[in-house]
Amino acid sequence: MIRTLVAHHRALDRGALAFVLSAEDDIEVVAELDRVEDVASALANGHGDVAVVDVELFGPDGLTAVGLARHLPEGHHALLLADVRQAATLAPLMARRSTGLGFLTKNTPPEQLVASVRRVAAGEPVIDPELVLAATAARSPLTPRETEVLAMAAAGGPVAEIAAQLSLAPGTVRNHLSRVIAKTGGRTRIEALRIAQKAGWV
Question: Rounded to a whole number, what is the distance in angstroms from the first to the last CA of the chain?
Fold first, then answer.
């Protein structure tokens, strides 16, 4: 039995999701929540196997690798429901292809939602092709200067060398790299580069 948490800010949508999932013999909805903080607490206390979460609950600052980890304890599985307009923001997270983490559009058919919950519970990554296409078509969150600095860093150039070539102060280059890391959700410059390359931004 897959114990599932449903978290959505709209009671009607939350109830509809719970109804669809509860109709399956192998899925049990153990909680309906309206705060992402409650999801983290429930998962950490072993009250669920999979969390189906509306990404709007995370807020604009929570949709990063760091923000996600704060609300979804390591080792737990989640299926995130998003609007295609949020695809660009989610692109760095989708590029990571983490096991047990899924991304679906909010207009996903019920049968696909059910199948995705099962796949996520089994530790498989799930990414809706519609979100991928929207993310690919979306404009990169990196500024032209940030993209330039990241590309030069990818070539192995140290901060001082990048600064000299771009006629910038070393501190300015470091600031650009810090912003790139924050925007991609990476933990290091190398990881930020990998995420940006997978998203097609560099």
Answer: 43
The angle that helices 189-198 and 144-154 make with each other, rounded to 10 degrees, is 110
Please tell me the distance from the alpha carbon of residue 183 to that of residue 41, in angstroms, as a whole number. Answer: 27
Helix axes 87-96, 129-137, angle to 10 degrees: 110
Helix axes 144-154, 159-166, angle to 10 degrees: 130
Helix (H, G, I), strand (E, B) or coil at 54: strand
Judge contact between 129 and 120, C-beta under 8 A.
Answer: no
Q: What is the pLDDT of residues 156-201, one digit of tens each?
A: 888 999 999 889 999 999 999 999 988 887 788 888 888 887 776 7
pLDDT digit string, tens, across residues 12-31: 999 999 999 999 999 999 99
Domains of the chain: 2-137 (3.40.50.2300), 144-198 (1.10.10.10)
Q: At what angle do helices 189-198 and 170-184 cross, to 10 degrees?
A: 60
> 0.85 cut: is pTM over it?
no
Q: What is the pLDDT, as a whole number, of residue 185?
A: 79
How far, in Å, CA of 60 to CA of 106, rounded? Answer: 18
User: H or E stretch including 190?
Assistant: helix 189-198
